[in-house]
Specification:
The protein is an alpha/beta fold. It has one domain (3-340): 3-Layer(aba) Sandwich (Rossmann fold). Helix content is 43%, strand content 17%. It is built from twelve helices and twelve strands. Strand 1 (3-7), helix 1 (12-24) and strand 2 (28-33) form a beta-alpha-beta unit. Helix 1 packs across helix 7, helix 4 runs parallel beside helix 5 (152-171) and helix 6 packs across helix 10. The longest helix has 21 residues, at 95-115. The chain is globular, with a radius of gyration of 19 Å. The chain binds nicotinamide-adenine-dinucleotide and thymidine-5'-diphospho-beta-D-xylose (TDX). Nicotinamide-adenine-dinucleotide binds at residues 7-8, 10-14, 33-36, 38-39, 59-61, 81-83, 85, 100, 104, 123, 125, 157, 180, 182-183, 189.
Length: 341
């Protein structure tokens, strides 16, 4: 692994991963990103002049774009983060989710096959396993849990995983899949729970909690997801699937109350709103395979990770205020106006 094409590298996890790779390996990195509403080159100002980093604006659905970058930079490895990633947006309209998450993945797999690249890693999600019962805490998602998708987003991610399996099985290609739980940390777009609640609390606005607030998510600090992906790239056998999680389950409402407490704001700012349609009740990941086989473990406990994250948003108000304008305001109106009344 020498020259890596990182797709979706201008997004939340992709930009954190690029910095992680530059800091922890000698690899060259090409960030291949379409720069949708979620892609932001400001996430990468620290590395923009690094000799081992290049940015290419391109769409993973466009094979010519991808081939050009692969040939020009002698790419041997692709890590695919590029996706439409927000469940609520997939409920408002699924087309772009199918185009990018399924069609784009197919394009990358074709390039992998035709160019004979040495490795491909698909960044997938725990949402492909569906929802767990909240009264059975001993049950978690393992790599053997059947794929069961409940949102257009998870259906599109699962479809991509199935294509990866098919290309590996049929053509013997070197394909890996990781399935991670909810990430949090710096540079997360403020449409997702934790940064949205921090921004609302700092802005003195109501914090919209869906349904009864008792849905459960398993939270992992973003740099721990990055170290897991790097461990899989460097150490695993071809064809493996690895779950990645924080063993850190929280009710949404408890996270929201914690954020308010840390920011010194009152719980009266919480507003329970109409639930997300088809809302998955509980996610929890069993990470024992990656821990036992590859020796990976998270470096951050939640108490430290959430502190780092809140402080980052407090110190980087310009970053989130800028992205919460324009297109964002239209989305916010569309998603929340019907829920708030
Ligand atoms: P994000 O929405 O912050 O970033 C997505 C990036 O992909 C953006 O930079 C965007 O410009 C780019 N992109 C979108 N369509 C593209 C296209 N057609 N061609 C090229 N680039 C395109 O997403 P994220 O939260 O960083 O998630 C990254 C990946 O990790 C996704 O595949 C997501 O499914 C997966 N994942 C996310 C989480 C999480 O908690 N955020 C958890 C598990 C897995
Ligand atoms: O305003 C909100 N109010 C609220 O109660 C928002 C945006 C969310 N929620 C709830 C819904 C979920 O139960 O918080 C929980 C987390 O929501 P999101 O941040 O939207 O994440 P989730 O739907 O769990 O999906 C995330 O984890 C898996 C990522 O967005 C996906 O990209 C990833 O694959």
């Amino acid at each position: 692994m020498q020259n890596i094409l990182i797709t979706g590298g201008a997004g939340f996890i992709g930009s954190n991963f690029i910095k992680h790779v530059l800091d922890n390996t000698n690899c060259n990195v090409v960030n291949f990103d379409k720069l949708t509403y979620a892609g932001n080159l400001e996430n990468l100002v620290d590395v923009e002049f690094n000799d081992r980093y290049r940015f290419v604006k391109g769409d993973i659905c466009d094979k010519e774009d991808v081939l050009k970058a692969v040939k020009e930079y002698g790419i041997d490895t692709i890590v695919n983060f590029a996706a439409e990633s927000h469940v609520d947006r997939s409920i408002l309209g699924a087309k772009e989710f199918i185009n990018t998450n399924v069609g784009g993945t197919l394009t990358l797999l074709e390039v992998l096959k035709e160019q004979g690249l040495s490795k491909y890693l698909q960044v997938s999600t725990d949402e492909v396993y569906g929802s767990l019962p909240e009264d059975r805490p001993e049950i978690k998602f393992t790599e053997q849990t059947p794929i069961t998708t409940n949102s257009p987003y998870s259906a599109s991610k699962a479809s991509a995983d199935l294509l990866c399996n098919a290309f590996r099985h049929t053509f013997g290609l070197p394909i890996l899949i990781t399935r991670c739980s909810n990430n949090y940390g710096p540079y997360q777009f403020p449409e997702k729970l934790i940064p949205l609640m921090i921004a609302k609390a700092l802005g003195g606005e109501e914090l919209p909690v869906y349904g009864d607030g008792k849905n459960v998510r398993d939270w992992l600090y973003v740099d721990d997801h990055c170290s897991a992906i790097l461990a899989v790239l460097e150490k695993s056998r071809d064809g493996e699937v690895y779950n990645v999680g924080g063993n850190n389950e929280w009710y949404n409402i408890d996270i929201v109350k914690l954020i308010l407490k840390k920011l010194g704001r009152p719980e009266s700012m919480i507003k329970y709103v109409k639930d997300r349609p088809g809302h998955d009740r509980r996610y929890a990941i069993d990470s024992s395979k990656i821990m036992n086989e590859l020796g990976w473990k998270p470096a951050h406990v939640f108490e430290d990770g959430i502190e780092l994250t809140i402080n980052w948003y407090v110190e980087n108000e310009n970053w989130w205020k800028k992205v919460m304008s324009g297109e964002y305001l239209k989305y916010f109106e569309q998603n929340y106006s019907a829920k708030m009344h």
